Predict the 3D structure of the following.
Amino acid sequence: MNHWHFILGAYGVTVLLLIVEVVALRARRRNAVAAAQASIENLPTP
Amino acid sequence: MALNWTRYASPASFHPLAGKLIPWFGWGAAVLAAIGLWLGFAVAPTDFQQGEVYRIIFIHVPSAWMSMFLYVVMAFWGALLLAFNTRLSGMMAQAIAPTGALMTFLALWTGALWGRPTWGTYWAWDARMTSELILLFLYLGIIALRQAIGEARRADRACAVLSLVGVVNIPIIYYSVQWWNTLHQGASVKPTGSSMEATMLWGMLVMSFAFWFYAIAVVLSRVRSIMLERERSAAWVAALPEVGSAR
C-alpha cells in the first residue's frame, strides 16, 4: 500500500502551480513597472 | 514608541514596506518547506493503516487551512474598505483572491488524490468537500466580478460585499465534519490536543507555516503590482527608483 504515484501527483501539481504563480507575478511586476514608466514619460516636463 | 498603523494605509508608504518584507517571507517559506518536507518524508514513520500515501497530509492540510484563512483575511480587508474606504483595503483584497483560489484548488486536488487510495473514490458529495468546492466558486466569482466591473473602486466595493456574504461558508467548512455525517474524517488537530504521532504533527505544522509565509510573500508581491497599475500617474510612483529611472 505505497501509492507513490498519488503522492507524486499531489506534490508535483502543487509545486508546478506555485512556480507558475511566482513566474506570473514576476511578469506582472515587469509589466506594471513598464506601464508606469510609459505613463510618466507622457507627463509634461516641468 | 507607538507604531502609527494608519501611516501604512497609504500605498505610497506600504509599497516600500512590502518590498522589504517579501524576501524575508519568501526565503522563510523555502527554509520552512525544506524542514517540513524533511520531517514529513525522512523522519515521520509510515502509517500502519494508510502506508505512505498519508504523506499527502503535509500539503493537503496546510493548503486547506490557508484556503479558509485567506478568505477570512480577504473579507476582513473588504470590511475595512466598506467602513473606512481606504485604497489599500481594496488592493489587498484583490491581491489575496487568486492565491486563495489556488490554495482551495490544491486542497481539493490533493484531497482527491488522497481519497482514491484510502476511501476508494476521488470525490464524494459530502459536506466538507462540497463546502470547500463552494469556497473555490466564491473565490472565482469574486475574481470574475472584479473583471466584469471596469472601475477599480466600484469593483472593490462590490467584491467586498460578496466576500462578506460568502464568509458564512467558512464555519460551515470547519464544522461540517461535526454537523453532518461525512466521509471526510474529523479534525486531528484541536485546541485541546492532537491524535497524531508527534513527528507527523510537527511536519504538518512546519509545512503550514511554510504555506503561510509563501502566501504572505506572493500577496505582498501582487499588491505591489496592483499599486503600480492603479496609481501609475501618481507622484510617489514616479519617484520610485525602478520607475523614475526611465525619465
